[in-house]
Amino acid sequence: MAIQSRNKRKADINMASMSDLVFLLLIFFMLTSTLVAPNAIKLLLPQSNSRTIEKPPKIVISINNNYEYFLQGVQVSDEALKLGLFEKLEGKESASIRLEADKTVPVQYVVNVIDIVNDLNKRFNTSHKVIMATSPKRKG
Fold it and tell me: What is the DSSP letter of 126?
């Protein structure tokens, strides 16, 4: 005698709630990714045909169109730039410093950065170099 139960159990999993969850996560990440803006300084770099490929720079100095200095993305004064460079270059024999200056910046501001690095080179007998960042020249 075979006894059968009235309630049959199904081994199916309802996927409707899973797909709802996936769509909610997709919407969440799409919305939050548009709100995240990188902390970048907007510069119009001068154009050049020369190409010097450098190793990833350890130190980046930027000068925006308001003639403000930024060391590693943090705004600094002239004196703080000297101290910051001294701290970052301390103990290093040679390093590449990438200088990103807006193309509207007067040359004097660029020369100020080069003078700071040259002064550190003379004082500590090192060979740090400044590389000017440029954008490719448009053909036409």
Answer: -
Angle 135-137-140 from CA coordinates, rounded to 5°: 150
pTM given for the model: 0.62
pLDDT tens, per residue, the chain with 140 residues: 567 777 777 777 777 888 889 999 999 888 877 666 555 556 666 777 776 666 665 799 999 999 999 999 999 998 999 999 999 988 888 888 999 999 899 999 999 999 999 999 999 899 888 888 877 777 65
